[in-house]
Amino acid sequence: MKKLFTLFCFFVFLGFSIAQTASDYFPSNVGFEWEYKVTPLDSASTPINFLAVFRVDSFASVANYKGNMANIVATKTGPLVSIQQQPFSDSLFYYTNGSDGYGYLSTNNIEEFLTTLDQQGIIANFSFVSFFSSLQNWYSVYRFASPPNTEYTIKQKDTTITVSVISLPVQFKYLGTRLPDQTIQTVKGILNCQKFLLRWKVTASIFGDLLTLNDTIWIAPGNWIVQDIMPGQYVNNPTLTNLGIAPFSIPGLETKLTDEITAVENDKVIPISARLEQNYPNPFNPSTKISYTVPERSNVSLKVFNLLGSEVTELVNKEMEAGIYDTNFNAANLPSGVYFYQIKAGSFVQTRKMILLK
Q1: What are 83-114's pLDDT values in tens digits?
Q2: What angle do CA 193, 96, 182 make, to 5 degrees?
Q3: Backbone φ, ψ for residue 164 (5° rounding)
Q4: Residue 196 · residue 164 · CB < 8 Å
Q5: What is the CATH number that goes with domain 22-261?
Q6: Dist. CA 202–CA 126, nearest whole Å
Q7: How far is Cα 126 from Cα 166, in angstroms, rounded to an integer?
Q8: Which sequence spans correspond to the domains of the chain?
Q9: d(CA 123, CA 125)
Q10: 247, 234 in Cβ contact below 8 A?
Q11: Which residues of the chain fall below pLDDT 50?
Q12: Top-level CATH class of 275-356?
């Protein structure tokens, strides 16, 4: 009888564990908001605090997206002084099915890594941005019923890259591991989270692993993602060196819940200096949003130039009052490539780079 009772308790416990579905982790009500502080990390994973920006996500709606009924999350990123006034500029997409949480893979969340790799010319005639853009699709990323510390394959793709005139068959793998649950302190209090390690791994059949990008994510019931850390790293792989690829650095990113945005949301925003923000999204296709700050009444000009320095279009040319503004740039009639946008407001001049990827 005791053995039967023990077995019964085991199956009750097992049934309780299995009954918990991925939908338990996503907020149930449209309108739920997340406020994050996003801090870059150097190659040693040391926070670069003065470059921190803020992000607001808002559960906007449930609608069909790419064949699935998705939880659509509007998102925006910017400096603390203007984040509340900025419009939402992009969207994230999730849906749950049983014990799995699905995400729509886009380059938005890893574009800084990919753009950095491309800009450093690590592999000639190969675009990380283009390659990863080709993988955009729905994937079962968060497998809540997966046994802890058991790796699973989310996506795998084989291709060939040319390094030092050598055609090298390589394999890109998007891997997931559900780590042991962890309780963490957040601005919302102590949260018991499921913890996942996501990894992009580049492997050559001849040489083994060439590059790995890690991303650790904490997901709390009813709150979804409450913490996300992509460590920075200095890549000094002897195999890459022998292939003519010099050591290089990849920056990281730390994303944590914050209450700093709420603390200033009712304050009147008074611009104290001119500023041109990085366009978002970047890379983009075919449109992107450019935000800028004008501290006093000025004649404002905002122009776009191609890589040769030729003017492509003028987005703004007028006298403007002090304030925080944004404008949309649609490049549907332009070819893919690197472009520059420049603002002139009084004596202030600033230029930034953006990437059009079709």
Answers
A1: 887 778 788 999 999 999 999 987 665 666 67
A2: 10
A3: 50, 50
A4: no
A5: 2.40.360
A6: 14
A7: 13
A8: 22-261, 275-356
A9: 6
A10: yes
A11: 1-19, 266, 268
A12: mainly beta
